[in-house]
Design goal:
By secondary structure, the chain is of the alpha/beta class. The chain has two domains: 240 residues, Orthogonal Bundle (MutS, DNA mismatch repair protein, Chain A, domain 3), CATH 1.10.1420.10; 242 residues, P-loop containing nucleotide triphosphate hydrolases (Rossmann fold, 3-Layer(aba) Sandwich). It contains 19 helices and ten strands. The strands form two sheets. A six-stranded mixed β-sheet has the order 6-7-8-4-9-10, sandwiched between helices. The protein has a four-stranded mixed β-sheet with strand order 1-5-2-3, covered by helices on one side. The chain is elongated and about 115 Å long.
Length: 484
């Protein structure tokens, strides 16, 4: 399953990226809105998309003015798709013919601008087709005026009727006799009706002839959408220093970030610590204290994998992914009131769907944040260890964050969030004067980076340090220490 829901987009920061993109055209805006990950059988198309973004990134850096002019011209395009659809079945109105004519005039100006950019870029599968014959059909007098008028050039009868109407109008203007003037007015009504009928006939004929050009117009619309989207993706890549991902057999990111979380942290006076991971097929467990950034790591991984498979650059210094056949994410309780189940029951439904995905043997990405947190700790630990073990032998990249001990021993790979590992707890304690302020100080001191744990290791004990820093009641703290 590659259908990413809105809640998952919002939770991971994907929607944040999509919302930050400002397309030049309605076609690009719609393509961005309905962007989905490429399927595994579309690997070649994904590579073409990534190559085109790379070309646009280089072009924007080296030929910025050419791209500025190109984007300026793109911004003039309006959406004519409804008019084209109607054209295939019904005559178009004068307004609709005007919209198509304006599109064609804008296309005429766009083509040379695109050719200038494309000479150095060499975009793949983006090729604009000139539609001069279609424009001539809508501009028989070749005036290149933006407006549209049914010219007498379309019909000798129409030209004759309009001449007759003008003559009658001139006679009306000169006539002073009331009865004669009224008679002329009746003649004008009859002539105007004849003009309307002939114009409708001409519009019907124009629309019929225009149908032959609809496939080329639709082709150009698709190319404009891809061109616009490619440029927007390149601009995002330049903004964040993103990198073109390699398509390989494993997930690997060096110093990746999550722009939504990074911007959020910045507003809080905190810094986002870049995350580096290497995830091969099998299970990977991420451990760390609840304030230690496990969710940050998972959302950052999910975001960057999704973006790469959707044909974006990765927010990292280097990136590599396989093309997944399915992606399953569990960040918040996947609770649907319709099922009337507990949060744990909803997690089991999610787990069954993930388990079903791995049975076809095609690559699957599975990410779960604190799975089985909705049941009691003893059973939860047993269930998580079993799930990690099963997915470890499947053709999937499964990443689980957990606070359950020994879950990591069932996985091929184990990462820990650094958390307070390198912090000077004594100095931190001296800074904290009250619990509420202490939370902010601890958060700023947390290192959300990951480090790989070699060998067997249980969950870290950052929670105990947090209890100390927040001055937990001494009697409770002493009792906790006895269990360590």
């Amino acid at each position: 399953m590659l259908d990413i829901g809105f809640e998952q987009k919002r939770e991971t920061g994907l929607q944040y990226i999509l919302d930050s993109m400002t397309a030049c055209t309605p076609y690009g805006a719609e393509l961005i809105k309905r962007t989905v990950p490429y399927a595994s059988e579309q690997k070649a198309e994904l590579i073409v998309e990534l190559n085109n973004i790379e070309r646009a990134v280089l072009g924007l850096a080296e030929c910025g003015e050419d791209y500025r002019l190109l984007m300026q011209q793109l911004s003039l395009f309006k959406d004519i798709r409804r008019s084209l659809k109607k054209c295939m079945e019904l005559p178009l109105s004068e307004v609709e013919l005007f919209e198509i004519k304006r599109f064609l005039i804008n296309l005429r100006s766009l083509v040379p601008l695109f050719e200038t950019v494309d000479r150095s870029a060499g975009f793949e599968n983006i090729e604009l087709i000139g539609c001069e014959s279609a424009l001539k059909l809508l501009d028989p007098d070749e005036k290149s005026a933006a407006g549209f008028h049914i010219s007498g050039s379309y019909s000798e009868r129409l030209k004759s009727i309009r001449k007759e109407k003008r003559e009658i109008e001139e006679r009306i203007r000169r006539e002073s006799d009331k009865d004669a003037r009224e008679q002329l007015m009746q003649q004008r009504l009859i002539t105007a009706a004849a003009e309307d009928a002939e114009e409708a006939k001409v519009r019907k004929e124009i629309s019929k002839k225009l149908r032959a050009y609809v496939p080329d117009l639709e082709h150009n619309i698709n190319c404009i959408a891809r061109l616009d989207t490619t440029i927007q993706k390149a601009l995002i890549a330049l903004k964040y220093g993103a990198v073109k991902p390699e398509i390989s057999d494993h997930v690997s990111f060096t110093d990746m970030i999550n722009p939504m979380l990074s911007d959020k942290f910045q507003k809080q006076g905190r810094a986002f610590v870049p995350i580096s991971v290497e995830l091969k097929f099998g299970s990977t467990v991420i451990t760390g204290a609840n304030m230690g950034g496990k969710s940050v790591a998972l959302k950052t991984i999910a975001l960057n994998v999704m973006l790469c498979q959707m044909g974006f650059f990765a927010f990292a210094k280097s990136a590599s992914i396989p093309v997944f056949d399915s992606m399953r994410f569990l960040f918040k309780e996947p609770f649907d009131p319709e099922y009337s189940l507990s949060s744990f029951g909803s997690e089991i439904i999610w787990l069954n769907e993930a388990a079903s995905d791995i049975k076809n043997g095609r690559p699957v990405l599975i990410i779960a944040d604190e799975f089985a947190r909705g049941t009691n700790p003893d059973e939860g630990a047993l269930i998580v260890r079993a799930v990690v073990k099963v997915f470890d032998s499947a053709r999937c990249v499964a990443v689980f964050s957990t606070h359950y001990d020994q879950a990591s021993q069932c996985a091929s790979c184990h990462y820990q969030v650094k958390g307070l590992k390198n912090a000077d707890i004594k100095k931190l304690a001296e800074k904290i004067t009250d619990a509420k302020e202490g939370l902010k100080i601890i958060a700023k001191s947390m290192d959300y980076g990951l480090y790989k744990v070699e060998g067997k290791a249980d969950c870290p004990r950052d929670a105990l340090n947090i209890c100390r820093l927040l001055a937990l009641d001494k009697s409770i703290l002493d009792e906790i220490k006895k269990s360590y």
